[in-house]
Amino acid sequence: MKTKLSSFSMFLLWFGAAISMAEIMTGALYTPLGFKNGVAAIVLGHILGNTFLVLAGIIGFREKAGSMESTRYAFGVCGSYLFSALNVLQLIGWTAIMIIVAGRSLNSISISLWGFDNFHLWALMVGLLVILWLYSGSYGFNVINGIAVSMLLVLTIVMSYTVFKGGMPAVASGGMSFGHGVELAVVMPLSWLPLVSDYTRMAESERGSSIAIWTGYFLGSTWMYVIGLATGLAFGTDDPTGIMLKANLGVFAMIIVIMSTVTTTFLDVYSSAVSLLNIRKGDERLVSVVMGVIGMMVALFFPMEQYENFLYAIGSVFAPLFAVLLVDYFVFKTDMRNSKFSIEALISWVIGSVLYYIIMGLDIPIGVTLPDAILTGIIYAGIREAEMAAKPKAL
């Protein structure tokens, strides 16, 4: 996909990516915290997660490299292959989740409007639209995406009014700690870390794209989370479809579901193709279609009850990965692109992944990602410093 993205286009791209049914569904998981604490955890988590997202994007802009290709700087060629494979798996998972959520929502709406019940048909239709969106190229990025995001803005306003018009939702209790709430907010922008450079490499400006990504995704994602939280408290459900039907949106609700899904999911499909092409070169368009088809097929079998665990798994893999990459790129500048792999980086990543689950058990108020990233960065820096100290000094 060869195009240049202006800062405004980048803002629309990431604002549109954030407005999705999956984010509303995740926001509904916060109901045990109540509204005030839930919003605080959502905002804090997004501040942390978006900062990581922007830092990773800067590398892609400067090196004009995709996200998984940029991991070669710290992990070497074979290391980047490992993370490309892991990224393809998580992106296929995200593609399936988005198609499932959209398919279920569209099916609920069609049952309500016409009595028509066929989840599989709606899921396949959404998947095909995602593939067609990819074929639209720069026009889809810059023009169609702007129109779609404008429509999605109407969604957020209507849903916000419907949810909040009765006053502040009731307070719930039990079931989630503040720290776990922060982490569930961090992992959503964190899940985009392995994708962000696929788009910042096409940006016109480093500063402009960084501001656009941070503000676009922060505004869109926190808004969706809060709507989900309020929906769960006010109506006892994590399904935004019912809210749209209560607002009498009808066919417009179907358009909203489709557009919000496509503007997010095509990023997952495209980046899964870019990651796969980091391992083996091929035709980008053809690989994108194949990834889209695989995502549609997986959607028919994906265990949605494991959604929350899926989010934590993403954090455990990519938080320590990008902690190592950021420390290496901005501090040590080792540039391992011509090496097969870096033992130091891989050891640090493995330790960081283990630490992620250990820290999760400690239930720290600031979540898991930040302390895990800091500790992983310190471990990697310590290993690098020890390695340099052990090398004989030139006379």
Task: Spell out the key features of this protein.
395 residues, Hydantoin permease, 16 helices, globular
List the SSEs and their pairings.
Layout: H1 7-18, H2 21-27, H3 35-63, H4 67-70, H5 72-114, H6 119-135, H7 137-164, H8 178-190, H9 193-200, H10 206-235, H11 240-246, H12 251-279, H13 284-299, H14 307-332, H15 343-362, H16 369-390
Keywords: Membrane, Transmembrane, Transmembrane helix
GO molecular function: cytosine transmembrane transporter activity
Pfam families: Transp_cyt_pur
Describe the structure.
Its main location: membrane. This is Putative hydroxymethylpyrimidine transporter CytX. It comes from Calorimonas adulescens. Keywords: Membrane, Transmembrane, Transmembrane helix. Belongs to the purine-cytosine permease (2.A.39) family. By secondary structure, the chain is mainly α. The chain has one domain (7-306): Hydantoin permease. Helices cover 79% and strands 0% of the residues. It is built from 16 helices and no strands. It has helices at 7-18, 21-27, 35-63, 67-70, 72-114, 119-135, 137-164, 178-190, 193-200, 206-235, 240-246, 251-279, 284-299, 307-332, 343-362, 369-390. The mean pLDDT is 85.
Task: Give a short synopsis of this structure.
GO terms for molecular function: cytosine transmembrane transporter activity. The chain has 395 residues and is mainly alpha-helical. The chain has helices at 7-18, 21-27, 35-63, 67-70, 72-114, 119-135, 137-164, 178-190, 193-200, 206-235, 240-246, 251-279, 284-299, 307-332, 343-362, 369-390.
